[in-house]
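thread from #wetlab-drylab

HS: before we spend reagent money on co-crystallization trials with 5-S-methyl-5-thio-alpha-D-ribofuranose, can we at least see a predicted complex? here's what I'd submit
DV: go for it
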Amino acid sequence: VPEPGTERMDCAEVAAYLAGVPEIAQRLGGEAGRWDVREVGDGNVNYVYIARGAAGGVCVKYAEPFVRAIGAAWPLTVERGFFEYRALAEHHRVASDHVPQPLRYDADRRILVVEELSGHRLVRHELAGGTPHPDFADHMAEYLARSLCLTSDLALPAGRKRRLAAVFAGNVEMCQIMEEMVFTDPYREHPRNHHTAGMDAEAIGLREDVELKLAVARMKVRYLSGWEALAHGDLHLGSIMVSDRATHVIDQEFACFAPIGFDIGTLAAHLLMTAFALPPRRDWALTTLAAIWTGFDERFRSLCASQRDGDAYAADLFAAANERAALASAHRLHMAGVLADALGFCGAEIVRRLFGFARCAELESIEDPAARAAAERRCLALARALLLERGRFLSMDAVVTTTRGLMTR
Ligand code: SR1
Ligand code: MG
C-alpha cells in the first residue's frame, strides 16, 4: 500500500470522478464530500481504491500505462481494464455468487468500477492468521466448473463461443506477459528473474534441463493454442477474496481463452506451494486442493450433461439410454485430459514463482533463506514430477500423496 498522497490518482480525484456518475453516486449515497475513499491495492499491476458512502461502497481500479510494481520502465497496455471488465461480465453472468458485479468501464479515464466486496479479505492475507471459511473448496469448485464449462464449446453454440473468443483474442499484451513469465523466462537468463540465495545451482540447472524445457514448451503450446474456455488467467491466492461465508474471484485482467485446466493448474500450484511454505496450513491446503478437484470434476460433468446448446457433443446425437451412458464416459475421459493439462500448468506455475519476476508470497514469508531454499527445493521436485511424469498422476489425491512424501524427505 503506497504512502498516503503518493497514489497516481489521489482519493479526492476518485471521489470527484464517482460523483460525476449518477448511478454510482446514488449507490454510494449521501454527500460526495463525506465519502471515505482509500487506496488499498497491493498487487503488481493496478491501483485499487475502495469508496464508501452512506448507502454503500464500490471498488475502483485505475490503470496506469505501466506495471505498478515497476513504474514507467515497464510500459503496459491500459486496455487491460477493458478485458477485465468483459471477463467480469461473462463470469458474473455464469457464476454470480463468486464474481463481483462490474458496474462501469470508462476507457478514456482507464477506470473500472466494480461492486465492493464488503467484509472480504484476500485469501493470501487470510492464510497469515488462519484459513478461509469451510465452504471455500466447494465455492471454488462451483466457480471453476461454471466459469469454464459455461464459456466452452461444451455449453455454448459454436458461433457464440467463437465470437467471445475473438473478443479475448485481443488481450495480446497481457497474455504475452504470461507466455514469457510462466513458460520462457525461468529457463533463460533474464534481468527480471530472481531466486532465493542457495538456489543458484537449481536456477542454472533449469537452463540446461532439456527434458524439462521441452515439457514446459508443450504446456506453452497448450496455452497458446488451446482456446477452450474463458479463463481467469492468473488465479493465485491474491486473486481470491473471502468473507466469513462468501468467496469471490477478482483481478481478471489476464483473462483469455485457454485450456480448461489452466486456472485449475495455477490455483493448484499456489495451494501446493502454501503446503510447503506454511506448515500450519499444510493440511488445509492439501485437503482443499483435493476437494476442489473432486467438486469441480463432478459439477463440470453434471453441467455438460444438462447443457443442450453446446456444439461439442451435439445433444440430439446422444438421446438414447446407451448413448447417454457412452456420452457420460466420454465426459469422464475429457476430465482426465483436463487433469493432465492442469498438472502440467501447475508444474510450470510453481517453477516460475521460484525463479521468475513475481514470486510466491507464501514462500517469501519464510524469513530464513536456508529454510526457504529447503522448501523451494521440495516445490521444485514436485513441479518436475508434475511436468515430466504427468501420466503417473491419475487423480489429485495422487498429487497430494506425492506432496506429503516430499515433505518427509
Ligand atoms: C506484470 S505482472 C507480473 C505478475 O503479477 C501478476 O499477479 C501475474 O501473476 C503476473 O505474472
Ligand atoms: Mg492480479
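DV: The longest strand covers residues 47-52.
HS: ok that's useful, forwarding to the group
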